[in-house]
Amino acid sequence: MYSDKKIWVAQSDKNCYILPQMANRHGIIAGATGTGKTITMKVIAESFSDMGVPVFFSDIKGDLSGMCKPGNDTEDMQKRIARFGIEGFEYKSYPTRFWDVFGEKGHPVRVTVSDMGPTLLGKLLDLSDVQTGVLNVVFKVADEHELPILDLKDLRKMLQFVGENRAEFSTLYGNVSTASVGAIQRALLAFEDEGGEELFGEPMLDIRDWMRTDIDGRGYINILSSEKLSNSPTVYSTFLLWMLNELFEKLPEVGDLEKPRMIFFFDEAHMLFNGTSKSLLAKITQLVKLIRSKGVGVYFVTQSPSDIPDEVLAQLSNRIQHGLRAYTPAEQKALKATAKAFRTNPEFDTETELMALGTGEALVSFLDEKGVPSVVEKVRILPPQSLMGAADSESINRLIRSDEFELKYRETVDAESAYEIICEAERVLKEQQEAEAQALEEEKAAQQAEKEKEKQKAKTNYKKGSSGYDFSKTAQKAANSAASSVARSLSTNMVNTVVGGKTSSASTIGKRAATNALSSVMRSTSNAVIRGLFNTKK
Backbone phi, then psi, for 19, in 5-degree steps? Predict the structure, then answer.
């Protein structure tokens, strides 16, 4: 509850506050299931909204949506309000926006592949160091050739392009093996089967759209529906990391402010760190350390502080610890470590109290005006002013439809990117190759036709010779002349025989005449052929 320009969170024998100027020093809300972590988040978020600070929630259980509606005045609530001695307590709704990576329970949230980058994408796809190295090469090639990678089809096309030209790129950037390219493609296929492709595309979320206030100056509470998203822990954690990185890169340095510019609550924070590589953990730690100077506070919500790596846990100064259960040796060890993290209060034993806390109770330690952690206090958490449970779906859908960002983010935009550019280049190259092949075929056909023409001309010249005479006709004329001579000789001899009464037989005369005539034909034909061959060679 926002009171006296401070965030009134809880009460012991005194009121316990988070100071707005110290709220960007980050925090942790931890506790076993059912101990009241969700209510604590809502109470703190309401105060931030009232002071004009936008808030982001990842809602895994679906019970934060009630912030868009005022709370119910029940008998139990009246008793709680009276017990705290709260004056002027008011049930009220808060300006709320709903978001969903899958676009089902809120405005779609998208990010481009290029904007996520190879490091986070490598974590998202669970790639090895070698495969992530190949992914770095793909991004480098895309950047140098101005090939935007907006969605997964762009990334697949770039992988194919780099794989087909790996000899050239390996020389420039290092080894690009077909095995690594294939492994990345298989990881993409598995990611798409989980519905992960919905995460990538345009219009991309402008993170500054989450940093809005309403007409009354209250900060908007942005609720990311994560029930479905949390079924893919890697996608969930990678998206949250991208948001932090996006804020860090886009927001200017502001130093210490009177109040934060924005507050993030990351529920089920252990998902953020499970299986995290050393390099990525170093990146998270750096982000948490430095994003404070951008005016952003990050609050991790988890069951046990041991879920968070020590490097990150050391940065979380505002601490709210609900009850812990220690049934195993590992849990008992975690309990001792949690108790030692607080400044000792001589009035009670911290470790013992952690085991005895009931629902709605907690141990807290906040930073004072000088940035020093207070001694641990045993407290009761205030009730929220908004609805404690989930809002009805009709109310949620009405808010989604009437919101200005529904028009901005609902429809997917498929802009020209690596896929279209490479496909167009392949189409042009194919047309050129087909045109060249057709031209080559036409040239071969023309050459063949020319050869046939020359061959036919040679045959014609063989027959005619260079003088232009048709030697076959000359030979025919000679043969005809010889045949006429034969006939005349036969006729004359036969007439002479009959009229003159010669004694030679007709057959003998005929044979002689035929022989003389055939010799004449052969001589005429032979002379014509010889003249043609001579003229042709000449």
Answer: -80, 130
